[in-house]
Amino acid sequence: MASKAKSRWADDEADAALDAQLKKEKEEKKRLRAEKARKLEAERQAREAAAAAASSAADAQQHERDGTDRGSPAKRRKLSPERETVPPTDSAPKLLRFEGGTFGRSRSVENYDKLNDIEEGAYGWVSRAKEMATGNVVALKRLKRDPKDLGGMPVTALREIQILKDCDHRNVVKLKEVVVGDDTTKIDSIFLVLEFLEHDLKSILEDMPEPFLASEVKTLLQQLASGVSYLHEHWILHRDLKTSNILLNNRGRLKIADFGMARYVGDPPPALTQLVVTLWYRAPELLLGATRYDSAIDMWSVGCIFGELLTGKPLLTGNNEVGQIAATFELCGVPTDESWPGFRRLPNARRMSLPPSTSTKNTTGALIRAKFPLLTSAGAALLAGLLSLDPVQRPTAREMLDHEYFRQDPKPKQEALFPTFPSKAGQEQRRRRETPNAPVRGQRAADLGAVDFSGIFSGREKEERGGGFTLRMV
Hints:
The protein is of the alpha+beta class. The chain is 31% helix and 13% strand.
C-alpha cells in the first residue's frame, strides 16, 4: 500500500523554531509577572509591619504616659513639663492646645415651630420661629435656589454660611446653626438659624413721624462703623449695606445682617463683579463699571445710610443706573481729573458727556452743607468724606470711629436709653417696600452707552451756596 502523501500545509522546521521561540517568550513574561507580584506582596507586608511597629510604639508611649507597667520601655526625652509638677508661674512655658472640631449630621428644621413670616429677601425667605426644646425665638432664613441651576448649593449660600460662622462681633448677626428639611435628598430645604432682632432700620424710618435725634444717629453710626470695621479687618466685603439689612433690637443694639453678597478678598483685591450693592446705595465706581474695588464701596453705602438716618428717606433714588449716576453727581458734584484722578478710564465713563468744570464751583462739601443745613461742621465733613467720588478719599471704618463728629455734643446716646418701637417682625409680615433689590448673581451688567450729563446743573448758575442756607440772586 502506498504511503500517504505529505500535505503542503504541514509545518516545516522553520515553523517549529518559531513556535519554540514564542513559547519561550510567553514563559519569560509569565515569570516576570510572578516576580513582580512577589515584590509587591513583600512591599505590602513591609508596610504593614512598619505600621504595626509604629502603632505598638504609640501604644507603649500612651501606656507610659498613663502610668501603666509594660516592662521596661526605653526612656523618652522630656519635651515639656508635667502640669502637676510645674507651678503656674508667668515664666513657665505654655503649650498650645487646639480643640479639634468634628463633623456631624445637621439637625432637622422640625425642631423649630414657625410663628410667622417676616420678609422675603434677594437670597432667602425669613421667618420668625421658636425652638421647641428651649422656647428661644430665632429667625429662620430659608436659602433660595434656582431650580434651573444644576450645580448644587449656590455659591452665595456657601459664602454666607462660611462668613457667618467665622464672624463673632456684637454688631454682626450671629449664626446659631444650619438645619435641613426631613427630605435630605433635596438641597433646597436648607435653613440658617439666626438670632432674632425685632426691627430693621428701614421699617423704623418709614414709620417714625420724625427722624432720629442727633445723639441717636451717632449711636447707630458708631455701631454700624464698628461692625463694618470688624468685617474689613477680617478681609470681608459686605457689598450690600442698606437700612433694610441693618437690624435693631429693643435694647438699642444694632447688627449687620444678610451676607448673601459678601465675600472674602485679598490685597490687592481680585477682579470682581460690578453687579453688587442695591442701586440706591451703590458707589459711583461700580456704576461706572469698575471691577477692581475694595472696602471703599461699603463706606459709600455707610454714607448713604448716614444721610438716610438724618432725613428719614433714602438719599439717592435713581430709577436705573443712568438716573443713579445723575442723582450722585447732583449731590456730590461732577467729577474732574483733579477731584477723581483716572475716572475716565472706567468702562462706562469713556463716552459720558459732562458739563465743563467751570459750570459749577461747588465741591462735595459745599453741596452736602446745602443739603443738610442743620448738620454740624464735623458731621458735614464726615458725610462729605464718605460720599467722596474718589474711593481713595473715603475714610475707613476705623478712621470713621475716631472722627471728631462723635466727640462733639450731643454725645452718642447710651444703648440702654435708646427708644423702643413696636415689633412688626414679631407680629406680622413686613410690607413690601418700593425699593430696588440687590443684583441677581449671573445678571448682565448694564451698558450705559453714550450718556449726556452736560445739563445736570442747568439753572444753578444763579445760585450761591453757603454753609447752611441757599441764597438765590434775583
